[in-house]
Amino acid sequence: MSIDTALHQLVERIRAAATQATPLSIRGGGTKDFYGEAPQGEVLDTRSLTGITSYEPSELVVTVRAGTPLAELEAALAEKGQCLPFEPPRFGNGGTVGGMVAAGLSGPARASVGAVRDYVLGATLVNGRGDVLSFGGQVMKNVAGYDVSRVLAGSLGTLGVIAEVSLKVLPVPPAEATLEFACGQADALRLLNEWGGRPLPLNASCWFEYAGAGALYLRLRGAVAAVEAACAHLGGERKDDLRAAADWQSLRDQQLPWFSTHEGGDALWRLSVPQTVPVLSLDGAAAPLIEWRGGQRWYKAPPGQAARIREIARAAGGHATLFRLPAAAVQSHEPRFDSMSAPIERIQRALMREFDPHGLFHRGRLLASS
């Protein structure tokens, strides 16, 4: 099926749904169905929108259709020695480029290289009227008003169907090393803040406890000389490159044992806080797994502790997301996302009304009160 045919069929499906007031649930590979409020409506499959439209390695830009498997895009980039530096989590096979943008999730390197939205240069969107709209382009240039192509990152399909995106890519760094330091949580946060103020090629970090002992892992990336000098300066135990690379991939996809080991009623919580926030005390919760130099902290705690967890996150200047529910609590009525500030929510709802006036795309996926 050609892209023109696939896009035409998708547009006609949306227009028919608008006429019949039929809610739609946009879906690619379904690998992130767990994220956000539960999808509702008839499934609108985007996987017919496949293929890399254009790729200019010398320009560091790729344009790809939204239903293209993320694995296919990453393989094409790897052949040219390039990558998506924000390391989007995949959570399994079959995830698509459109789902990557719609979810807006970034991996271990987020604190050093930026988020998904920072790499979205342009996008083609089919809105709730069935109109095909194009935003941005293939250069890093903003204009007055909303940068809609970047607003799509993290929108969870509430603004429309992403049909195509242009992404900035980067060369794979020439050198990489992973260092391990035995330390507790407080010392790990102190070290990360100290190192963050130095000219070091820091790329990713991870601290967690295993069998009662805390360990901080630090990934360095950059020029060979810079990585080697940093290793000599920082010390620690240098890990085997192949084993370390596999472990970072496991962290990216939440396949580390820490994520799979939980009490029966525990949910997975993500706390986004300023990197300088000290150790947070969550009564009864085990030690967290900490990424992004202290900025992202994963906890395992029951959904019923939502009010207390969110209060702690807000007091620290951040917010908490109920990221994954335990199997026994899939029907929990606890909102997945923290409440937005009134001004931000007004803007978000105004965007939804503008792009999807008929409410086809289930605004409640992002805003539980919709």
UniProtKB/TrEMBL annotation:
The keyword Flavoprotein is annotated on this UniProt entry: yes
Gene3D superfamilies xrefs: 3.30.465.10
Entry's Gene Ontology molecular function annotations: catalytic activity; FAD binding
UniProt keywords, alphabetically: FAD, Flavoprotein
Keyword Ribosomal protein among UniProt keywords: no
Annotated FAD-binding PCMH-type domain residues: 1-172
Domain of life: Bacteria
Name of the protein: Glycolate oxidase subunit GlcE
Primary gene name: glcE
